[in-house]
Design brief:
Order of helices and strands: HHHHHHHH
Number of helices: 8
Structural class: mainly alpha
Largest sheet: none
Strand content: under 5%
Helix content: over 70%
Shape: flat
Number of domains: 3
Number of strands: 0
Length: about 170
């Protein structure tokens, strides 16, 4: 399905009229009508309507299921949030305040990102002249990287050797 057909379908599923869809998309009303009259469009629309109906029915069924634990959790979640806010504002311990604030932010979707670093050493052995040139270029790049890391780490530290300089000597 073409992107413009998908756009028409989205607005159509939202219950927009042909003229509203034309206005929202910038298409001519005749274009919208042409798209809506195609067999594959009608089949896709029917499939999406069935999918929406199933989701609605599943959600409604979940709401009617008598789960006492879920019901108790639903009733107490507001009070639990209030207690977290009170702890964040009034706790004597800074650690308790910090944990409460982190929990509040986490529940609001502001969980801190975790940075993952991965370094690999890759050796390439190629027999022809081009391969040797690539290998030399990679070695040059590695030396440049190591020297730039060591110079940036040693800035502001006087003449003390940084971690990068130790690694560079080990490589040689």
């Amino acid at each position: 399905m073409l992107p413009r057909h998908k756009l028409v379908l989205r607005y159509d599923l939202l219950g927009k009229s042909k003229s509203q869809i034309a206005s929202l998309t910038g298409y001519m009303p005749s274009t919208v009508e042409n798209i809506k009259s195609r067999k594959y469009y009608k089949a896709k629309k029917k499939k999406m309507e069935n999918k929406i109906d199933r989701k609605f029915i599943e959600k409604a069924a979940e709401d009617f299921v008598d789960d006492p634990v879920r019901a108790q959790l639903e009733e107490s979640k507001s009070r639990a949030m209030e207690l977290l806010v009170l702890m964040a504002e009034n706790a004597e311990s800074e650690n308790v305040k910090l944990k409460a604030i982190r929990d509040i932010l986490d529940r609001a979707g502001y969980k801190p990102t975790k940075e993952i670093k991965q370094e690999t050493d890759m050796k390439i052995s190629l027999d022809d002249r081009l391969g040797e040139g690539v290998s030399e270029a990679l070695n040059d790049l590695k030396q440049i990287r190591n020297s730039s890391q060591s110079s940036s780490k040693s800035k502001g530290k006087g003449k003390s050797k940084g971690k990068g300089e130790k690694e560079e000597k080990e490589d040689e």
